[in-house]
Amino acid sequence: MSTENPADCQTVNRREVIKTLFTLAAAYTATGCKREADSLSTFFHTHFKEMSPEKLASTMESWERRYKKRYNREISVNATPAQEGVLFGYALDVSRCIGCRKCVYACVDENNQSRDPQVHWITVLEMDNKHGIDLRHADAYYEAEKVPREDKFYFPVQCQQCENPACVKSCPVKATWKDPDGIVVVDYEWCVGCRCCVTACPYGARSFNWARPNVPAEEINPVTEYLGNRPRPQGVVEKCTFCMQRSRNGKYPACVEVCPVGARKFGNLLDPNSEINYVLKNHRIFILKEELNTQPKFFYYFSI
Amino acid sequence: MKAIIRIMFNGSYAYYAWVFFLLVCIVQGLMAYASQFTDGLIVTNMRDSVSWGYYIGNFTFLVGVAASAVMLVIPAYVYNWKPIKEVVIFGELLAVAAIVMCLLFVLVDMGHPERLWHMIPGLGMPNFPNSLMAWDALVLNAYLAINLFVVIYLLWSAYQGKPYNTKIVIPLVILSIPLAIGIHTVTAFLYSGMASRPYWNASILAPRFLASALCSGPAVLLILFQVLRKITPLEIKDNAIHKIAELMAYAMGFNLFLFGAEIFKEYYSNTHHLVHYEYLLFGVNGEPSPIALYAWTSLIFSFVAFFLFVIPATRRNFFTMNIGALLIYFSVYIEKGIALIIPGFTPDSLGQIYAYTPSATELRVAVGIFGIGFLIFTLFVRVGIFLLFERKEVPEPIHEISPGEAAEGSSI
Amino acid sequence: MKMRTKLILLYAMLAATAGLVSSLDIPESTDSGAGAVPEDLIAVAPPPFSEGVFPCSDCHFEDDEVDLDPREVDFHDTVHFDHASDSRWCLDCHDAQNRDMLHLADGRLIPFEESYRLCGQCHAQQLRDWEAGDHGRRTGEWSGTKQYLLCAHCHDPHSPTFESLTPLPPPIRQEEIK
């Protein structure tokens, strides 16, 4: 309810309103420009899938130049395609995991997640033996002198690379999709930041860049993928890609290699002789929230 | 055009004061938004666990307000029921203002609002038919376009002193009826389609949205009509107001019934999904919920309003009816703005609890958006009143129109 | 050949393992399909000896007289023996004459590089899973050369139960992300 002196109000005439509006627009634009030097140049950025091979190559180069300028070091930006005849699968032995969180931080280092504000792609949940796998009794923030703690077990969760991904379905602009090798990727230059996918994901696997991500230049992993671990802009969603910069080049994801107890298994589901298929054949596996029919390619099992 | 602007700048001191107040709201909102645009959504209290909050809550509420214009259009045009017909334009104006606010609330919630063009068919890559958000953007814009066209056409006809062409208006108005139901249903589907959030993943959500919209929208109009007939020559018969109030009583009863049905299902079956209702109404893990007070307020307001409207004596008494209208308005505002969104995310999909409440920036931006909505509404109503009732006079300060909206404005 | 014997050789150090493995150049590569893996095709990292203990023959000589009575031995004080200790002792695995080798139950000598065969005598299931890439940590390439770790890289053969670790810090609570 207005309590202004009517005399003041009379001064509001057309010219002044227009002047105010122009000033505001100018101020608004000025603050907007401060946000990110890339803002204008990415405004007309093409969707990844719409790029011709030449356009793709020049885009990768321009991002390399941009990062070189920003971080003052060589950072390669690649668009490695999915390998033919490969469908990635992942298995995690819940009975072995000790909850040391080495995977969480190996992932942060490998994939250039923001240090501040903190972004983690892997969440390790501590659960009670007596409750079993019950998210109501799960704690992601456990602090312990030593792990594993008595009467507890540990349950890491990350992107489950669903065959039927709810996140992809929910995206209003097709900025996220499932590649032929099963990896769900995000085009950071197409994402509008509406967070439908964050809401749709039943596994809390998607993170939003609430502020401009911050990674010290010397800590950046310089081997990056355009749809994967390259430094991200503010205001877009990011997620685990099974370390596509590694896995598409034949290597294990960082979390697999770092796990001190060998609880993490990875490989090609289409290769009958792969480690992952041995695990799936020889253990009783289960998937998280199977009733949602997301059909994850991330499997859990208890080997002991 | 000049004439229209002249009309807009013409009014009583109270009118100026009201407009000035709205401009202050808008300016401070823009300032808050500027900091959000620069620093990112970190200045809100939304985080990965609760990735939608107050903005999307307001959006949902306003979709309901916009959709309820249909409440008036149906009897006026379909049954050719004269007492409401003249005021339909104000309902449509309300819809236009509400939709503009809806779109603004979605816009400020986006990490990259400048990439909005990615959603435009032909230009961007809207994800049809999979994404409910893409559908929502489509139907909201279609609804906005139709209502804006009807409103401007009606005003234009009045400006030229010609009767409007019913062959243009009636089909469009009739088309806007399914669209009104559509925008609200699609918005409800946006939530109820999310299997990841059991709190929303209920088929009853869309009917609940419609029922609550048919309470809150007309509540705004009831008060608006009383103001209009006081300050303009417009004749709105008591009969019409009582009829709307009666229809609202049914909607309120139905709304409560649907809520009760949901509460029964959750509490009787007592599954894990109950935890979200526990968070809404009480709290979980021994921690009291910061939104429980709002939830109970909303529920009590809703019950009181229902009784005020369902009892003929209090419904026909303008004093108690107005109290009821305010109560139901606030009840639905809390229900959509807070009680719908936040418990859906708390606990989050991995069972973790982040106790979200909106930040100062979120509140300020919301005030700014309401300011823009009310300003649009005020200016249009000003023009509408002039063209429909004061046309023969030369534009000069004539009537006050602010107090009615002022009452609404304070609800922000 | 001049040989001196020591009673105990191995001490697996979990923490040292990662660095050790990644810096190694493994000559025998394998494409290691699961199932039947010929033992000689398993690429292994060298055994994780404690510093300064190998070769054992520096101290233990072939012609030393050895008391073959099972007993507690306290010379190797870095070793804490807790591996079925009421029925096992050093020379069940370490060879009394050739201290740089281990021996299987049937007396065949095996080098430390093949110690998994020794472990697999009792832990056959684990051996099978390990060969298939199921049990234990793998590094390298999911589709090509894999670097296998020996049992002893992760499990101290003298005390195979894992020691607990200090976890890395928990995520910052979302209330505190500003």
Descriptive report:
The complex is a heterotrimer of chains A (304), B (412) and C (178). By secondary structure, chain A is α+β, with helices and mostly antiparallel strands. Chain A has 10 helices and 12 strands. In chain A, the strands form 5 sheets. Chain A has a 4-stranded mixed sheet. Chain A has a two-stranded parallel sheet with strand order 1-8. In chain A, a hairpin with a 5-residue loop joins strand 5 and strand 6. Chain B starts with a helix and ends with a helix. In chain B, strand 1 and strand 2 form a beta hairpin. With 412 residues, chain B is mainly alpha-helical. Chain C has 178 residues and is of the alpha+beta class. Chain C has a two-stranded antiparallel sheet with strand order 1-2. In chain C, helix 2 packs across helix 3. Chain C is globular, with a radius of gyration of 19 Å. Chain C starts with 13 loop residues before the first helix and ends in a 24-residue tail after the last helix. Chains in contact: A-B, A-C, B-C. At the A-C interface, helix 5, helix 9, strand 10 and helix 10 of A face strand 3 of C.
Descriptors:
heterotrimer; A: 304 residues; alpha+beta; four-stranded mixed sheet; two-stranded parallel sheet; 10 helices; 29% helix; disordered N terminus; B: 412 residues; mainly alpha; two-stranded antiparallel sheet; 72% helix; 1% strand; globular; disordered C terminus
The side-by-side strand order for the widest beta sheet of chain A comes to 10-2-12-11
Integer average pLDDT of chain A = 90
Q: Helicity of chain A, in percent?
A: 25-40%
How much of the residues of chain A is beta strand, in percent?
A: 15-25%
Give me the Rg of chain A, rounded.
23 Å
Estimate percent helicity of chain B: over 70%
Report the strand count of chain B.
2
Decide which structural class fits the backbone of chain A: alpha+beta
Biggest interface between chains? A-B, 71 and 68 residues
Strand order of the largest sheet of chain B: 1-2
Total helical elements of chain B: 17
Uncertain ranges of chain B = 393-412
- Terminal CA distance of chain B reads 31 Å
